[in-house]
Structures are given as structure tokens and as C-alpha cells.
What does this fold into?
Amino acid sequence: MTLATASPQDVTISLARYPMQGRFVGSRAHEAGFVGGIGSGKTWAGCIRALSASQGIVGKRAVLQTPNIGVITAPTYGMLRDATLRTFLDLAGPAVAKFNRNEMMATMRNGSEVLFRTASEPDRLRGPSITWWFGDEAALCEYRAYEIMMGRLRQFGQLGYAWIATTPKGRNWVWQHFVQAEKPGRALYRASSADNVYLDTAVLDIWRQTYTGDFAAQELDGEFVAFEGLIYPEFRHEFHITSTMPEHFTDMVAGVDWGFANPGVILVFGVDGDGRMWQVAEHYRRQRRVEEWVEVAKQAWRTWGINVFFCDPSEPDFIAQFREASLPAEEANNAVLTGLQAVKNRLVVQGDGRARLMLSPSCVYTVSEFESYQWAENKLGIKDQPVKANDHCMDALRYAVMGADSMFGLALDASQVQYADEYTIGAGDF
It folds into this structure.
């Protein structure tokens, strides 16, 4: 596919794609979804559609009025800046006349405007009428973001176009919307990681060795998986996710899980005067060296005034590097079952209607892992340990919770928790 921009001096851009990407890019559906495994080129395909729409093109046909306004969203600002925006600008090249980083807006050579926004707080997405919207990694966003963006597709008094590109995250709203509620004008395109002929096969081989079971089906095959045997069935969006945080915390802690081929994680929590923990930030990235994590930790320490980084004890040399950088790092307690119970105790909704662990909606990877963290069966068929996949935030969470409970005397055992009538820890969980 080539795209000729409409300008006094035309620029032709070559946009290579494999067959399923091509079908998605060529779709004329008003609502389209591209659901695929990691590395399947979802963001690339979504940005090709965005670039085409900014030129008035949908499905290889000039059907949109130009210049127009379009919006591209991602679950967090970091994902928007580091992946989606970078991909769009790389693809667009000379088709972009200028990019205003303060306003996060690209002005195309034909006068169209492309706005880049985070979807972490959906109500902030309200704004002017637009012609098109692309939601990158939409399964990590709330359905509310989708509803609001669909309501904005009315520029020039005409129904606009919307598309998402995402790896599935369980059977959440993306599955409900595009599979269960299938209807005319709405199309779904599916791809696995292996379908991307431009992906290095060595990378795919590593992923196949690392990911297993339901997690491999979701992350590599792009399947909508109904995860069974969840470790934290107590977790509920309505009780554990809030954008309303205390103005002041008495203490700050962080949990650190090391990684390179697998993601590394730093989760930041505030502790209030009642001993509740509030997750205020997450840092989640593959292929980041420990020296880079030191810099991330320094920034988090400066921003939040973190008292202690509770670190995965499996890498003492990494902890030493944190300490050499004057970061307050300690080896975390890695007693798995004890840690799981500590987190469970904090998730329980108590008599006052609130839990003792709350998450900011911007902590999208932590939320996603809560909803897919499973028990593994041993050779006797007993579920006594977590599946070692999709657990990086969950490990960092355990470290932070156990560390805070010990450091500040906040630990609760099951007999101390004041349960709301309808929420209890199941007797068979351990």
C-alpha cells in the first residue's frame, strides 16, 4: 500500500503490511477492532489507518472530508509517548507539517490535526467533535473511554470512524463488544504473534519458551481467555480502582521485580493515616538494564519521597546498585503464600465499604494482572502455587504489601479483617 498525501508537493509513503493487517487497514467498517498477540503489529496497523484517515481515506477510498480532526489514545501517557506516538510519527514522516509536543498535536501537510491523548481518566477525553479515533491497547482501558470517544465522532455532522488495536485481556469489554455484541458496521480482525512475517523468529521462540497455558493463548495467540482459578477473585473494579486519592500520605513504599526479557516493574504505593495502601504509579518495561532501572527509581524517589524500595531478593547485585545510588533498597520477603494472603486481606471490602488496597486507574498493567493471575496445578492436581507467567506486577505488589505491613505494623490476619457480608476469602484458596 502507498499513500499519497494531499499537499502542494505530494509525498508518497510506502506502508508494508502482512495479509491480516491489510484486511484491517482496508476495512470500511465504522467500528473495527484488530486483536492480536504481542508483536503482531497492532499499533502499526492502527497508525496506518490513522494516517490514511487524516488524508480522508478509509479502506483505500477517499470518503472523509479534509482537513479533519482525529484522536489517538493509549492507556497511559508513557505508552502513548513511547509506543503509539513514536510509531505514528515514524510512519507519517514528511506527511506531518509540524508536531507540537506541549499540546501533543500533529498538524498534517493537508491541514488535518491529530491529537494524542491518554485514556487513563476517560472523562478528560471530552472535547471537540472529531472525524476519527484510534484506541491503541484498548483492552487496558475502561469501556467508559470507548463510550466517550464514540460520542465525539460527529465532525461535519457525519458519523465518523473508530478502530482499536489491542492484545486481549481476558473476556472484558472488548470481547463483549466485538464478539458477543457483533452487529453490522462492526468488524473484528484477529492475528497471532506468529502471523507477523516481519517479527524476528528468535524473539518469538523466546516468547514461546517463556509463556505457557492460558497466558500464552492470550499474549501470543491473541485469544480471548476466560481465566480459571484466579488467585484474587476478590478484586473488583468498583471497589479497588479510584482516581480520588488522599492529598497526603504518611509513608511511601515501592515494590520492585527485576526483568529484562520479561518485564521489570516498580510499583509505588502511598500509606495513609488509617494504614490503607494506595497504588499511585507503576513503571513497567521490557529490555531495560538495571542501570536504567536505577534512574527510574531515582525519579520515583524524587517524585514521591519513597521510604523503602522492597526488591526481589533473587538479584542481590541489583539491590546493591540501588544502594550505591543512595536509594533506600531492601531485600523483600519472598514467602509466596504468606504474601498472597497479605494481599488478599487488603483486598477484602470491610464493614465501612472500602478495601485496604486501592489502585489508580493509570496502573493498567497491575489491573490487568489482577484479572489473569492464576493458580497452577502440581503433579497431584493440587493448586498450591501461582502460574509463573503474567506475574511481574503481582510479585512487586506482594513485596510492597509485606514490606509495608512489617515496617509500619500494618499486618492483618484473616481473623482481624472486618468483612462486608458478601465478600469473604474462600476457605479453599489455601
